TrEMBL record:
Belongs to the glycosyltransferase 2 family. PANTHER family: GALACTOFURANOSYLTRANSFERASE GLFT2, RHAMNOSYLTRANSFERASE WBBL. This is Glucosyltransferase. Keywords: Glycosyltransferase, Membrane, Transferase, Transmembrane, Transmembrane helix. One of its GO terms (molecular function) is glycosyltransferase activity. Residues 4-131 form the Glycosyltransferase 2-like domain. InterPro entries: Glyco_trans_2-like, Nucleotide-diphossugar_trans. The chain crosses the membrane at residues 243-266. It comes from Moritella yayanosii.
């Protein structure tokens, strides 16, 4: 069985460490790999890095370039170059656990899933503000093995090539500068009847980048996540559904505002997470009334 591992990269030297972790994967005897790396930099920043590491790997590594600065188009370029029965996704700032892919595949087979989402464990550089670590703002919610979901990300993922082809799935370039193209992609798979599950045993590690260790980045990200959720789930819904959604989100926003105010005197580590949840709700409401969105990729 061939599995294609897709990775998009943009001006990040860590892509070499990610490739090294892929080379160290422990796989079942019947599984072989190919790796497709798509450079989204018009100046081909990663070309020599990728090709240099490819020379010392015992699996084919294909370098491709998408010159248009658009993460959705880069992801489409990657899946267009796959030949595997399954397609895996990993980010260029992550390191795969040796059992990552084997666990994703095992979960997919056990639960007869079309897509499986593994865990991402955050690690922190030594200069990380303590409130960020204590607040857990970069920690992902716990999941159970086989837990069904309606969407997910491409940071630790396995998806059936048959499902991609059956439903003619592509990443939407409208999300190319905002992010959220992966959530939209997998939600459409879910709407087609695809089965999406989580794996509690498959994981990658990611050291949080220094430029993300601040409240300004976290607030922008929270607004964008809220906006994206509304865009791919609600914008095309009937008016009655939008009104019900608006009411529900507004009530949650008010409750979160109260929680933030209560926790405010106890410091940033206590109020940061509910504040970001509040801002997420603001983003959800904002996207109902305007098409202007936060861009994470400039």
């Amino acid at each position: 069985m061939l599995i294609s591992i897709c990775m998009c990269t943009y001006q990040r030297d860590h892509v070499v460490d990610t490739l090294r972790s892929i080379a160290a994967l422990q796989l079942p005897d019947h599984v072989t790999l190919e790796v497709i790396v798509v450079d989204n930099d018009e100046h081909a920043y990663a070309e020599m890095l990728v090709k240099g590491q490819a020379n010392v790997m015992d699996m084919p590594v294909y370098y491709r370039q998408e010159t248009a600065k658009n993460i959705a188009l880069a992801r489409n370029c990657s899946i267009n170059n796959t030949k595997g029965e399954w397609v895996a996704f990993i980010d260029d700032d992550e390191v795969a656990d040796p059992d990552w892919l084997a666990q994703l595949l095992s979960t997919a087979q056990t639960f007869q899933a079309d897509a499986v989402f593994g865990r991402v464990k955050s690690t922190y550089p030594s200069h990380t503000p303590q409130w960020i670590i204590d607040s857990g703002v970069f920690e992902r919610p716990a999941v159970s093995n086989g837990q069904e979901v309606s969407s997910g990300a491409t940071n630790s993922t396995l998806v059936s090539q048959a499902a991609i082809k059956k439903y003619q799935l592509k990443f939407d370039s409208d999300y190319g500068l905002t992010g959220g193209e992966d959530a939209d992609f997998f939600y459409r798979l879910y709407q087609h009847g695809g089965k999406l599950v989580c794996s509690n045993e498959a994981y990658v590690s990611e050291e949080v980048a220094s430029n993300r260790l601040n409240i300004n980045y976290l607030l922008r990200r929270a607004i964008r996540i809220g906006e994206t959720y509304t865009r791919y789930r609600i914008q095309q819904a009937p008016l009655a559904n939008k009104l019900a959604y608006f009411t529900d989100v507004l009530i949650k926003l008010i409750i979160l505002l109260f929680i933030v105010l209560v926790k405010l005197p106890f410091g940033q580590s206590k109020y940061a997470k509910p504040l970001l949840q509040l801002v997420d709700k603001y983003g959800k409401i904002k996207a109902l009334f305007t098409s202007k969105t936060v861009k994470l990729y400039n």
